[in-house]
Amino acid sequence: MSDWLIKGETDYRISNGVIAEVGTGLSGGTVIDADGLVVLPGLVDLHTHLREPGREDAETVATGTAAAALGGFTAVHAMANTDPVADVAGVVEQVWRLGRDAGHCAVHPVGAVTLGLDGKELAELGAMADSAARVRVFSDDGRCVSDAGLMRRALEYVKAFDGVIAQHAQEPSLTAGAQMHEGIVSARLGLSGWPAAAEESVIARDCLLAAHTGSRLHVCHVSTAGSVELIRWAKSKGWHVTAEVTPHHLLLTDKLATTYDPLFKVNPPLRTAADVQALREGLADGTIDAVATDHAPHALEDKETEWGCAAFGMLGLETALSIVIETMVEPGLLDWNGVADRMSYRPAQIGRLRDQGVALEPGAPANLTLVDPAARWVVDPHALASKSANTPYAGRELRGRGVATFLHGRPTVLDGKLG
Ligand SMILES: [Zn+2]
Q: pTM to 2 decimals?
């Protein structure tokens, strides 16, 4: 494996997959000019839909992880709502192997909480934890574990191996047929709405269950101001509750539904400007631990249809860092250390990853990404590495772009292209 020398304000020499030296005036190895670039620990996504097995027409492990590497990620957690569902050791091991073989970034499969995501019977959580994929994050994402007794048992079960239940908080009896956020805009459009309380009531319940069991709860894609308040409350009690927010919930609002463009149809839905502001503040003060993409590729026929029939979800891996720069860094809500914390250190900690989210010091695994914060680029959906094109940012000029990504000392991206 060749040696690399990243020369910038601080130099990093990479050798044998680890950071060999950090300092100034270093020499040795192939030089990468990092003048003006920001060096971050490799980004870690807690929430990625790679669609394989089952919907390889929308994304594969190879195409999704290529998108991840271009976005600066060195690890992603692949959600369990595949076909077949990742509810047994065999499927999580298959996804883990596909990730290893593709080589763009580490793939950590998420195991389903319940068999078939049916919300009735616990899946083989222990077998998935003990498998080669070493699953630590479990989620029925796409669906909510709405049965309180089952949620309690899942929380108790994963304690044995320090796992975490990642909940898609959505009380189903409050969201049947919902198409968008319930509020002034939904009333005007006559679309059936999704009340904030559907998310918040489940979060409140689950925080209490996490306290009762002493287990780890992670709240997926928090989208309302009230949710931020609830998580702040749970953390103030010292309960083991963490949370994530998506880039799109930091930027976009429910007003976009007035376009009837299904690219803006997502679960949980885009909320109000006041919610966006509360999410930014919650991420800034650490109430929300992590940015997670909820990268959700969809084939053309599932998205290019009328609003009511279109699938929920949007791409996120290749644009996440740019949106965080626009919504958090440029307004002064997060500095680069804050970005490293919310997009690498804390998500790796939540996923209990041992060799990701590690500070860039001598001896650390060389998982890192180089970002040009001054770059400007216009999103062309068909130029993205993802197999799908359902980005909500088509034609939008974004700030900041990944220049290079290293995975265990090997460049997965160089000069902004796949290595
Ligand atoms: Zn979800």
A: 0.98
